[in-house]
Amino acid sequence: MLIPVIGSIFVIVCNYKFAKAYGKSDWFAIGNIFFPYIFTTIIGFDDSQFVGNK
Questions:
Q1: How far apart are CA 53 and CA 45, in angstroms?
Q2: Which DSSP letter does residue 51 get?
Q3: Who is most buried in 5, 14, 32, 52, counting CB within 10 A?
Q4: Residues contacting 28, CB < 8 A, separation 6+
Q5: CA-CA distance, 32 to 20, in Å (whole number)?
Q6: Cα 2 vs. chain centroid, distance in angstroms?
Q7: Nearest-5° angle of CA 36, CA 21, CA 12?
Q8: How far apart are the first and last CA of the chain?
Q9: Mean pLDDT by 10 residues, the chain (54 residues)
Q10: Closest CA to 41 of 8, 9, 25, 18
Q11: What are the phi and psi torsion angles at 49 (to 5°)?
């Protein structure tokens, strides 16, 4: 019963860190958490550069 909760938290953290690694704002990261297919595609097709972990 604890595995789905931990999995959901892991996905949220990964989506947040993914957006921040490309230099996006916190609002973009929140959008990436709720609509990952849309916001990941935006990162893929705009001119974002990987800046790494901060």
A1: 21
A2: -
A3: 32
A4: 19, 39
A5: 10
A6: 23
A7: 40
A8: 34
A9: 91 95 95 95 94 80
A10: 18
A11: -115, 145
Distances in Å between the Cα of 26 and the Cα atoms of 4, 9, 29 are 25, 17, 5
* pLDDT value at residue 40: 94
CA distances from 42 to 2, 30, 54 (A): 33, 14, 21
- Tokens coding 15: 């989506």
What pLDDT is stored for residue 54 in this prediction?
62
Given the structure tokens 């996905």, which residue do they identify?
11
Give dist(CA 50, CA 52) in Å, integer: 6
